[in-house]
Amino acid sequence: MKKKMFKFLMISVAILLLSAPIWAVEKYPDRPIDFICTWGVGGGADQMARTIGQLTEKILGVAIPVSNIPGASGNTGLANLLAAKADGYMVTL
């Protein structure tokens, strides 16, 4: 009986120790996510980006402002994305 109780206790402690990092994770996202549209204002890509941003705001619960950064066939916006910190708070279309 004591062996079974000890085994159960050890398994319980192992499960608690292994699952502790899950409880320590921060909520994502906790601040607005920047959405870069690599094309000009008013075009099809801009309308699609704004629609996706509005629909995603409801799901994620944070603001998703759309920034239009046209130029060089989209490369200017992509350069801004690549220069940003890789933390998941900037996306592009």
Total beta-strand segments: 3
CATH class designation = Alpha Beta
The secondary structure category is mainly alpha
Sheet with most strands: 3 strands, parallel
**Which CATH architecture?**
3-Layer(aba) Sandwich
Span of the ends, CA to CA? 62 Å
In percent, how much strand structure appears in the residues?
5-15%
Global Rg? 22 Å
Overall pLDDT confidence: 81
CATH topology: D-Maltodextrin-Binding Protein, domain 2
Total helical elements: 3
Report what the structure shows.
This protein has helices at 2-23, 44-60, 75-83; strands at 34-37, 66-68, 90-92. It has a 3-stranded parallel sheet, with helices on both faces. The chain has one domain (27-92): D-Maltodextrin-Binding Protein, domain 2. With 93 residues, it is mainly α. β1, α2 (44-60) and β2 (66-68) form a beta-alpha-beta unit. The protein is built from 3 helices and 3 strands; from the N terminus they run αβαβαβ. The radius of gyration is 22 Å and the shape is elongated. The longest helix has 22 residues, at 2-23.
Element layout with pairings:
Elements: H1 2-23, E1 34-37, H2 44-60, E2 66-68, H3 75-83, E3 90-92
Overview features:
11% strand; 3-stranded parallel β-sheet; elongated; 93 residues
Give a summary of the structure in a few sentences.
With 93 residues, the protein is mainly α. The chain has helices at residues 2-23, 44-60, 75-83; strands at 34-37, 66-68, 90-92.
